[in-house]
Design brief:
This protein folds into 2 domains: 68 residues; 71 residues. 70% of the residues lie in helices and 9% in strands. The chain has 4 helices and 4 strands, in the order αββααββα. The radius of gyration is 17 Å and the shape is flat. The mean pLDDT is 85.
């Protein structure tokens, strides 16, 4: 997958994150919380954490989707790619350790199936590899 395709995926992802932000604010302001969705109990107390995570993810996706030019020419963009690669590497390792040691993950009353961690390992490892790859190929 080349960097143009990854940029388009980042643009789609930012639209999904915006939809998540709108949904969280709407559910909270309309008094629809607490609610149970996919076996997870969502409460109004969770909304600030959801919004902080979503805004940080949205900033990252917008920067990658619209502003970052590859090959990277700026040291700050290179540092950002290394940071993102490291985060995805940690996520991939966490999923791998969950599979290896058979750790159960329960969100609310919902037991997350193990097959989700297999998908998480593959996707997070690929994003980590791509981030490190693009960071190393800096135009000089």
């Amino acid at each position: 997958m080349n960097h143009r395709t990854l940029r388009e995926i980042a643009k789609i992802g930012s639209g999904l994150v915006i939809a998540d932000i709108i949904s969280a604010v709407w559910f909270s302001s309309a008094g629809l919380l607490p609610m149970t969705l996919l076996g997870v109990r969502w409460t109004s107390a969770m909304v600030p954490e959801i919004l902080v995570f979503d805004v940080a993810l949205l900033i990252l996706l917008i920067h990658y989707g619209w502003n970052m030019r590859l090959p990277v020419t700026s040291p700050s963009e290179r540092a950002l790619l290394y940071l993102v690669g490291t985060v995805f590497l940690v996520v991939a390792l966490a999923h791998f350790l969950r599979i290896t040691f058979g750790w159960r993950l329960i969100l609310g009353s919902y037991a997350v199936p193990m097959w989700i961690s297999w998908i998480g390992v593959v996707i997070a490892a690929y994003f980590s590899y791509s981030s490190f790859h693009f960071a190393r190929h800096m135009r000089r």
